[in-house]
C-alpha cells in the first residue's frame, strides 16, 4: 500500500454481507461496462481468479461480461481483465481489489472498488487498512453494504 494516488481517484468499499463475490462482482462489473469504462480485477490468488473467470461466464445478469485473464492473448481487447498481478494491459480506469488483494496504483486509475466478503477476516482487515490509507491520502472513501433490498451507502 505504499503507492501514491492521484487526488481525483474515487474509492468505494463494497462489504458483501448477503452474497459472495462470485454473485456480486458480475453486477458491479456490468455497471462499469454500462458506463463504457474498462476494469482490472485483481485477485488475491489464482484459485480465486479461476473461480471469478467461471462466474463471469455463467452470470445471468448482466448476460455478457467480455473478459480475459492473465496469460491469455490479446489482453488489450478485453474490457475486463482478471489478474493476480499488477498488469493493466487493457488501459482500465477502474480497479477492483477482490477479497484481500493488495492495492497498487497506476496513472490511468480513476476509481477503486474494494470488494470483500464479511466472513473473510483477512479481506476485512485489508479493507480497514485501505480505508485509512485513502483517508491519509486525502481521498474520502465511500462504504456500501448489502441489505435485503440491495446496496445501501453508510453515511
Description:
This is DNA polymerase III chi subunit, HolC. GO terms for molecular function: DNA binding; DNA-directed DNA polymerase activity. It comes from Entomobacter blattae. InterPro entries: DNA_pol3_chi, PolIII_chi_sf. By secondary structure, this protein is an alpha/beta fold. It has one domain: Rossmann fold (3-Layer(aba) Sandwich). The chain contains 3 helices and 8 strands. The chain has helices at residues 21-34, 46-58, 121-136, and strands spanning 10-16, 39-42, 67-69, 80-83, 94-98, 111-117, 142-147, 150-154. An 8-stranded mixed β-sheet has the order 3-4-2-5-6-1-7-8, with helices on both faces. A hairpin with a 2-residue loop joins strand 7 and strand 8 (150-154). It is globular.
Q: Helices and strands in order, then pairings?
A:
Elements: E1 10-16, H1 21-34, E2 39-42, H2 46-58, E3 67-69, E4 80-83, E5 94-98, E6 111-117, H3 121-136, E7 142-147, E8 150-154
Parallel strand pairs: 1-6, 1-7, 2-4, 2-5, 3-4, 5-6
Antiparallel strand pairs: 7-8
Helix pairs in contact: 1-2
